[in-house]
Amino acid sequence: LLVLAQSNDNLRAVEGTVRDSSGSPVNGAIVQLKDTKTLQIRSFITRENGAYLFQGLKKSVEYELKAKFQDRESKPKVLTIYDDRERATLNIDLE
């Protein structure tokens, strides 16, 4: 029985910037990435430039992204299985 190691061909990353209603980057926002198959959630806290990055994501799974900061929250964004970029960019706007 031959078992092949999973190559990076099946992996991707998503990055972007969390912005407030005026379009400014938000430092300290919590970005949550939810695997829609396993419902596992990973979190990332943005830095001064409002940027976040999640790596090692499966191309065969859809992910839901949401950002929170203080009392504001974003609408969910979806990284679909049809987005085949190795590094997708999804900017998130807080309501």
Mean pLDDT: 92
Say how many strands there are. 9
Helix content, binned percent = under 10%
**Global geometry:** globular
User: How far do the termini sit from each other?
Assistant: 53 Å
The biggest beta sheet, please? 5 strands, antiparallel
- Give the SSE order as H and E letters: EEEEEEEEE
Individual helix count:
0
Question: What class, by secondary structure content?
Answer: mainly beta
Low-confidence stretches: none
- What proportion of the residues form beta strands (DSSP E)? over 45%
Query: From the alpha-carbon coordinates, what is the Rg to the nearest angstrom?
Result: 14 Å
Question: Overview of this structure, please?
Answer:
With about 100 residues, this protein is mainly beta. Helix content is about 0%, strand content about 45%. The chain has no helices and nine strands. The radius of gyration is 14 Å and the shape is globular. The protein starts with 10 loop residues before the first strand and ends with a strand. The mean pLDDT is about 90.
Helix-strand blueprint:
Blueprint: E1 11-19, E2 30-35, E3 41-45, E4 51-58, E5 63-69, E6 72-73, E7 77-79, E8 87-89, E9 92-93
Parallel strand pairs: 1-8, 1-9
Antiparallel strand pairs: 1-4, 2-3, 2-5, 5-6, 5-7
Quick description:
Helices cover 0% and strands 47% of the residues. By secondary structure, the chain is an all-beta fold.
